[in-house]
Queue: 4 jobs
Job 1
Amino acid sequence: SILLDDNSTFTGEKTALPNANSVRGFDVIDTIKTQVEAARSGVVSCADILAIVARDSVVQLGGPTWTVLLGRRDSATASLSAANNNIPSPASNLSALISSFTAHGLSTKDLVALSGGHTIGQARCTTFRARIYNESNIDTSFATSVKSSCPSAGGDNTLSPLDLATPTTFDNKYYTDLGNRKGLLHSDQQLFSGGSTNSQVTTYSANQNTFFTDFAAAMVKMGNISPLTGTSGQ
């Protein structure tokens, strides 16, 4: 549903606070969909394309593979309020993160594994400014280096990598960063802040294969959250 533009009957999810000026690449999905429709019209949904692209991009960047269950149908509507309320904030503490995932049938183990997706990608200055300037559970040299591209005022849309060492490689360095108090987002560092998830972060930092196995399983589990199938959707 995130692919749907606003229309007269609903306001879509693209302008929701977690998505606006953040989620991009819609044109890539549009191109794939156009080519798939040209080859075989009315067979493959955009929802399945997104699920396949998620897997293939992880593999392309050096990460694990998994079997993508297919047969999803597309939503005909989207919800601005659902996106605003259901996507965890980068300011979330550990209990809020656990509650958010639990509400969708995902365990704390799934939370830690799926957070490892932050081994790639970028975050906007506005999402981590408070952490690098105000928090104490952060490596000082790391905070200083990030401040150079994220001033205390202005520059909200300036990007910094979520994984400073290998931002375009899918690996376990995200967890190593957390162990060294170099998590970029407050919500990231919450996974290693003396709480119940510390041991899992340590395990993933020490064993990339374990992370890969758990991440793949959690992606399949997340992909099975209330898919539209049969005659539902389009």
Note: The chain is about 45% helix and 5% strand.
Job 2
Amino acid sequence: SVPPGWSYEHDMELGRFLYDHSERELQRVDRTKEHISSIEVSSHAEDCGVAHLTDNQTYTFWESDGPPGQHWVRLNMKKGTIVKRLWLMLDGQISSYIPRRVAVYGGAPNRLQHLRTVLINENSFQDVCILRDMKSHLPVLEIRILECRDQGYNVRLRGIKMRSFWEWDLILNADMFRPARLVRYPLLEGADADMLYRRAVLIQRFVHLVDSVLHYMIPFPEDSIGTFNALR
């Protein structure tokens, strides 16, 4: 049941509180090496191997060595990781080595599903976000380089960068709602911590349910804008 005196505005403020004290804090930490168990690549040129993707050096890079359109980077993720942001760190020394169009796939190793295709702005020469706001753990993420600029043959990446967290980092508990944490949320101040916890669990369950059916509801890009406006 809805708590006495509770309104939609209270739920909105509780949602902001949950974001501020969970995902936003966790996204500030770069856990690329901590959350990736291994990285595979389609090929590599001499002295431009896979280790350069995570060495945090500005002067090294991974360079493919194979036919165009068949370059990929596969990230094997540790169990329980959830990716919030994934960037490609471009190497802008030679334009034809910069990816122009990439596709991201994710899921179980033998059942990868298309997540997103990104057309990289021709003016981008540094870091490009290619994936964001995953809601569940994906054992494998595969970045497929579909096309390079200027009809380039191979690709260079200075590295990859990730913001991610463990699934269990977001487990709710009543201790989250201590009075000292509620001072910037006037609608929540003075509310019973156990009640806020139960309401937060309800919101989290609702979000998970919406996420589970969202891909059936949102129209594909080729659908008319009228379809999307009707849904909205």
Note: The CA atoms of residues 223 and 229 lie 11 Å apart.
Job 3
Amino acid sequence: TIGAAFVAKVLSVGDQTVTLGIWVRRGQTLTPSPPDLTDSSSFQRAKFWVNELQNCEEGCRIYLCGTKSDLLEEDRRKRGVDFHDVQDYADEIKAELFETSSKTGQSVDELFQKVAEDYVHFTAFQVMTEEKGVDLGQRSGAYFYSCCHH
């Protein structure tokens, strides 16, 4: 990454406070970029990365965020990604869909609020359904995660 910054965003969900850790990237990176609503090829790349993510992290929550919505406000003909195609895909993969603009801030707060709400509700659900305690030595699936490497 050419440049990156870490930002903490504090949100309220009911009577709870959630702090989201957000990495803000600038420049070119090797990691996936959000789909650009003015670039049809970016939607195809996003679909590839969603598939990769689902193969590695089954059951994860996905938030599909199209960027540069401010350019569409200026001129609807700039849209390179059909809204209905993206909505159909989001429905298919059970993702939340947001069309955002880092320039104007459109839908950015709504996206973060949804992530925070889902985190609180998912965590509460896990607490109610999972056994107390975690066996850190237990190996599960094809991957083994641990806090320490020897």
Note: Confidence is low (pLDDT under 50) at residues 142-150.
Job 4
Amino acid sequence: VQVCVPPLYWYHDWPKMILFFELWKKHSPTFIIYANSYSKNVGKVLEHYKKKGLVQIVNWPTLQSSEDGEDPNAGIYRLSHSLAHNDCVLRMKGEIGVLLDIDEYIHIPGNATLLDFAKREFGKDGNLGSLLFNHNGLKITPMDGTFDGAAVYVNATGPSKAVFRPEFVKYLSTHWVHTYSRVGKGRKWVPRDEALLLHNRVQFSSDHLKNTIETPIT
């Protein structure tokens, strides 16, 4: 399993990055991290996991302004992400690919790994090119250097994320495979009771959330 993380811009939340790597350990992946700019502490975290052979860091610099002062980076945020997504697919050497952000995790109840789960699903249908995982909020408190807190589901809706077979991807969008490289390939939604995308967004950890239902994670 290889996990692509889109470009990090001015990123400084080193505890969340450690949590990301440690929670993903269950699935034994390697990571391709696109980096534009980040703090010194984030750099130390990345180097730590790089030395373990888990992280490949891809430098993703901003573009130079033209002689007349035109800044090509002014509107490149989304374009840059899409370029990184598809560049990552070309770099992948893993059997299974995942595209998500530093605050997202695939949760499969029990002891099954994502590789086991994906291989089983892809083995059922030779025309299956990707799996879509339903979004759920994830609340973890406190999110600081102590890592001493509880994790609960929050019934927050949001976009899905995909697990895919890299050799079948022609064009990768942010939340799904946009175009497959072979005719007839398709996607399947994973039932919520089998697996979930957990999104540890800052707003889900707020103490002022309204109209939400929290459920302990098992």
Note: The radius of gyration is 18 Å.
